[in-house]
C-alpha cells in the first residue's frame, strides 16, 4: 500500500501541495485528479523521489520511502507526464539501457522487451531513432520501460496522452489487469470518462489540497450526482464554464 | 518586409547561435558569450601589445619588412581561422530548425523576412567576431607599423581602412565558402543531406585547421615575386587577402597584384555561390523540414557493442559511445580538441623531419613523434571529458533519477570506463599501429606502456570530483575557465617535452626505464585513490544540475563558551 501523510511542497513561499494525505491500496486503481496547477504532477514527482517534499511522509508497505530509496525505486514503475526520451537512441536501445540500469538479467529482459514491443506494435520500429517516433510511440516506450521490471507500484501520469484508440483500450484493460494481480496503481488523468471506467477509488486535488478521497460509488451517493464529471465540476471547477466561453467569444468578436 | 517581425526574429536568431537547451537553470547565455568574447579580446590585446617589441631600428630593412608582412598575414589568417571555426561550429544554426519552422510556418510571416533576419543575424555575428579579434591590433599595428613608407599624413588612415577591408573580406570569404558548401549540399534530397551534412562539417573543420597550420611561410615580398611560389599562392586564400591589403594600402610589390585579383574574384564567387545556394536550400528546407523527420533513418538492425563490466557500467558506457557517435554537437566539440592536438602533432612531425635530415645516421626513435603521441593523448582525454559535461537531452535524464543507481562511487567507475574507452583506448590502438609500422617492436612496446599509464593518470585527474553521468548534467557557463586554459597550453607542452626527453633516454637504459614506470604507476595509483576517496566522501552525491558555488563560504567555526572553573 502507498500512503501519503500530510505531504506538502513549497516553492519559494508558494505552496504547491498542501498537507495531502491519502492511501492507494494493492488490488485497486486509484485515480488522482485535479485541474491544471492543482499539484498532481508535483505529488507524483515526490512519490517517485524526483523531488523532495517540504514536510510530511510517504510510506510504501508501511515503510517511509526515503529510508531505503534505492530498494523503493526497484519496486516502482513510472510513466511521466511528458514523453521525454533520449532521441538519438532507438526504442530497443533505450529499453535495453533501462533494463541494464535496473540490473535485470540480460536474457530474460531481452525476451520481455521483445514481447512488449510486439504486443504494443512497436517491433517493426524498434531500430528507428526515438526522435522520429510519434508521441504515441514514445508513450508506448515509456510504458514498456515502466513495466519492464514487474514493479509492485505503478505510477501513471497521463498515460493515455497521444495513444491511438486501440492501444488506449489495451492500456485501460492492462491497468485493471495489473491491479487485479495485486499491484498498487496510482493513475493521474484529465480524462474523467476513462478514470470513471478504470478506477475504483479517486482522490481529487484542488489548490494543492485534497477535496475528495473516496470510491466513485461513494462519492456519487454522497454528493447525489450521477457522473464523475459532475462531481469533479462541483469540487474543483470554480468557473462558470458556459459564462467563460461566452465571454471569450464576445472578446474575440468585439 | 515587416520591420517589427524582422527585429523580433533577428534578435531571436542572434542569441540562438548557441544551443540554450544545454544550459543549467542558473546558466546565462551572456556568461557563455562573454567567455568567448573574453578569449577573443585577450588574444587581440596580446597581439596589440606585441607592437611594443617591434623596433625596426634594430633590424635590417629586409627583416623588418618580413616581420611586418608576417604580422599582417598572421592577423588575416587567424581571423579566417576563427571565422571558419565559427561557421563550422554554428553549422546547425545557419538553417532553420524544425521547431522554428513549426512555430513560424502557421504565422503570417513571409519566408523572405525569416531569411533576411537569419542572414542579418549571421552577418552581425560575423562582424562582431571579427571586430573583437582585430579591434586592438588594428589600432596599434594598423596605424603605427602597417602604413606604406611613403604614404604621408593620410597613411595611417589608409592602412587602417585597408586592414579592416582585407580582414573582413577574408572572414567573409571563409564564411561564404562554408555556407556555399552547406547550401549546395542542401540541394540534395533531405534524407541525403542529413547523411552528408555531418561528414561535410568535419571535413570543413579539418580543412580550415589544416590549412592554417600547414600553409608554407610565404609572407614576404621576395616569396610573392618568385615564379616557383605562384602555384602555391594561387591555392592559399590567406595570401590572397594579404595581397589585397597591400594593393589597398599602396604598398604592393611585384607579384602582389595578380594574387590580390584572385582574392577579389574568390570573394565575389564565394558570396555569389553562398547567396544563391543558401537561398535555394533555405526555401527548399522550409518545406522539407516539415514534411520529413529531422533525423537520418536508422539502420535496420542494432549495432553490436561489447559488455563493459556490470550491467550498470555497460549501460553507461554504451550510452556514452552512442551519444558521441550520433550527436553532431558533441562530435564537433571533440573534433575541435582533436584538431588542435593533430595540428601540434603535424608541426612536431615536421620538426622531426628536419631533425632527421640534420642527423646522419638518423635516430631510430623520433622524439617529436613521441611527444606528439603524448600531447594527442592529452587533448583527446581533455576533449572527451569536456563533451561529457554537455548534456544531450536534459529533459530525458529523469530516467536516471527514478532508477536506483549506485551513487557517486558507481557513477565514477562508469565515467572512468567511458572515458578510457572513448579516449585512451582508440589513441593507444592508433599509436600502436603507427609506431609498429615505423619503429622496431621493443621501443614501441615500452612507449605504449608509458602511454597507457599516462592515459590512466590523465583520466583519473579529469575525474576528480566527477559525480555525474556523462552527457546528463546541465552546463553552467563560466566554470570551465577556457580563457585561463590558454596560459596552461605552453607549460603543458614544455613539461611534456621534458618528460619525453626523460623517456627517450630511459628507452636505452633498462634501470632508468624501470624507475620511470614505477613513478608513473605510483602517480596513477595515487590519483585513482584520490578520485575514489572523493567519490566515497560524505559530501559526494550524484547531480544532474550544475549550480553556482555559494558567494559566501562558511568556515564552520562555532563559538562554544567554556565554563569557568
Description:
The complex is a heterodimer of chains A (254) and B (565). Chain A has 254 residues and is α/β, with parallel strands linked by helices. Chain A is 42% helix and 24% strand. Chain A has ten helices and ten strands. Chain A has helices spanning 40-48, 69-74, 91-101, 106-119, 135-147, 165-180, 192-198, 216-223, 228-236, 241-253; strands at 2-11, 14-24, 29-33, 55-60, 63-64, 76-79, 153-157, 184-188, 201-206, 209-215. Chain A has a six-stranded mixed sheet, sandwiched between helices. In chain A, strands 2-1-4-5 form a four-stranded antiparallel sheet, with helices on one face. Chain B contains 19 helices and no strands. Chain B is globular. The termini of chain B are far apart. The relative contact order of chain B is 0.09. The A-B interface holds A 48-50, 69-71, 73-74, 76, 78, 80, 82, 84-90, 92-93, 96-104, 106, 127-129, 131-132, 145 and B 293-302, 310-312, 314-315, 318-319, 322-323, 326-327, 392-393, 395-396, 398-405.
In short:
Helices cover 42% and strands 24% of the residues of chain A.
Summed over residues and divided by their number, the pLDDT of chain A gives a mean of 90
Radius of gyration of chain A: 19 Å
Mean pLDDT of chain B: 83
Beta-strand segment tally of chain A: 10
Regarding quaternary structure, what we see is heterodimer
User: Mind summarizing the main beta sheet of chain B?
Assistant: none
The separation of the N and C termini of chain A measures 55 Å
Summarize the biggest pleated sheet of chain A: 6 strands, mixed
Low-confidence stretches of chain A: none
**If strands are numbered along the chain, what order do they take across the biggest sheet of chain A?**
6-7-8-3-9-10
Labels describing this entry:
heterodimer; A: 254 residues; alpha/beta; six-stranded mixed sheet; four-stranded antiparallel sheet; 10 helices; 42% helix; globular
